[in-house]
Design goal:
This protein has helices at about 20-35, 50-55, 70-90, 115-120, 125-130, 135-155, 165-170, 225-230, 250-255, 275-280, 295-300, 330-345, 345-360, 365-385, 390; strands spanning about 10-15, 15, 40-45, 45-50, 60, 95-100, 110, 160, 180-185, 210-215, 240-245, 265, 280-285, 305-310, 325, 395-400, 400-405. The model is unreliable at about 385-405 (pLDDT under 50). Strands 5-3-1-6-7-8-9 form a 7-stranded parallel β-sheet, sandwiched between helices. Strands 12-11-10-13-14-15 form a 6-stranded parallel β-sheet, with helices on both faces. A two-stranded parallel sheet has the order 2-4. It has 15 helices and 17 strands. It is of the alpha/beta class and about 400 residues long. It has 2 domains: about 10-185 and about 365-400, Rossmann fold; about 200-360, Glycogen Phosphorylase B (Rossmann fold, 3-Layer(aba) Sandwich), CATH 3.40.50. The radius of gyration is 22 Å and the shape is globular.
Length: about 400
């Protein structure tokens, strides 16, 4: 129910609503909170978690786009069909919540997880690293989405970005200065990711070795495993656990060229990432670009000290005592020193682990979802002509340290 004690009927438009998918997980948690507060939910998506499908207050409109051969066509079909679905039910919908460019319909709330206008300009875009047919397609895909996202964002009433970094990109690259933009950071499941002991022998790992962990896409340079491997070659007593599909990845060969293949363990894609975080001593993720990075927050919740770059949106949640933040993700020497410093100082590892967990506990999924619902209610009130007291008094409004222009 909203602040006046009435039930809202909220329509969520997104491709996936489920755990195990970054954007899909955010939508899942917000929907769960909306249902908990007694609101009715319409979900327009291609995938929906089974528990929500069976909920009495959820109406699911499934759009199957699987027969389209490429993402560009799948997204266009979804955008057209979802717009028609919203139009047919508009009289019953009080609030439309979308994610970037996903529909041609107007929205009330647009939740932005990635700014295509910024990504297509980035020097780290795959097309600028290696010009192939595949990377050219992604460059065209991002360019088209950059245009479409600007149109979608100008047709919404309120924008929620997942980080201050994303907000700045919206203003600078998507030219959305003067729009109502709030920042709500993503959350983490602190009951799934938590500090615990796992017997390393069960995974054929040595109890006396320091293990760093890396998890991410191994077929792109954006996650920066190459710099991690170079740094590892200079720190002889540390091993690296690598999670991700390495089948067509260049990194196993690169590790062999560096002479460290015996210390780099490529473990493939694993669903039980929480178990491997419990096995590791620290998490190394100096990504060259991340709008937020859920995996870093998951590592912190697991009680892992983190070495990361300042190109990750999640850095806004951290203090110096919970992570080592590199100013330049490509600075091999700085990364080497950071790995050596942490791996050689057990007390510092333990101290940073406690503080990392403390930060994560302040940013769980429920906390995030409640913030989303507060913005939904405020937008709904403004739509019906009832403004919150702070707006009536002409006060500035801040959400997560972000100014919302009146």
């Amino acid at each position: 129910m909203d602040e006046r004690g009435t039930t809202m009927r909220i329509c969520f438009v997104t491709h996936k609503v489920k755990k195990g998918d970054g954007q899909g997980r955010v939508n899942y948690e917000v929907i769960v909170e909306a249902l908990k507060q007694g609101h009715e939910v319409i979900v327009i998506s291609s995938e929906l978690s089974e528990d929500l499908r069976n909920h009495s207050q959820v109406e699911w409109i499934r759009i199957n786009v699987s027969k389209m051969p490429i993402a560009l066509l799948r997204n266009q079909l979804f955008a057209i069909v979802s717009a028609c679905s919203i139009w047919l039910r508009r009289a019953r919908i009080q609030l439309v919540v979308v994610n970037g460019f996903i529909t041609y319909a107007r929205s009330d709330i647009n939740c932005v997880h990635l700014v295509h206008s910024a990504w297509v300009k980035s020097k780290y875009h795959p097309f600028r690293e290696k010009k192939t047919l595949r990377t050219f397609y992604h460059f065209v895909y991002n360019g088209i989405n950059a245009v479409l996202e600007r149109i979608a964002l100008k047709k919404t009433r309120h924008i929620i970005s997942v980080s201050e970094q994303v907000k700045q990109e919206l203003v600078r690259d998507a030219k959305l200065g003067g729009r109502c933009i709030s920042v709500v950071h993503n959350g983490v499941d602190t009951s799934e990711f938590y500090p615990r002991q796992i017997n390393r022998a069960d995974y054929k790992l040595d109890e006396h070795i320091v293990y760093a962990l890396f998890a991410g896409d191994l077929n792109s340079g954006i996650k920066n495993l190459d710099t991690v491997l170079r740094a590892l070659s200079e720190v002889e007593h540390v091993h690296l656990l690598v999670l991700g599909n390495a089948e067509k990845s260049p990194y196993p060969n690169f590790a062999e060229q560096l002479g460290i293949s015996d210390r780099v363990h490529f473990l493939g894609y694993r669903k039980n990432i929480a178990d491997f975080m419990a096995l590791a001593d620290l998490f190394v993720f100096p990504s060259r670009y991340e709008s937020f990075s859920l995996v870093i927050l998951e590592a912190m919740a697991s009680g892992l000290p983190v070495i990361m770059s300042n190109r990750c949106g999640v850095v806004e949640l951290l203090s110096d005592d919970a992570a080592i933040v590199l100013d330049n993700p490509d600075d091999t020497k700085a990364l080497t020193n950071a790995i050596r410093e942490l791996s050689s100082n057990p007390e510092q590892l333990r101290r940073m682990a406690r503080r990392a967990r403390k930060h994560a506990l302040q940013n769980d999924w429920e906390t995030m979802a409640i913030k989303y619902m507060e913005i939904f209610k405020e937008t709904m009130s403004a739509q019906s002509g009832i403004l919150p007291i702070d707006r009536l008094e002409g006060k500035e409004r801040y959400v997560e340290n972000t100014y919302t222009q009146k």
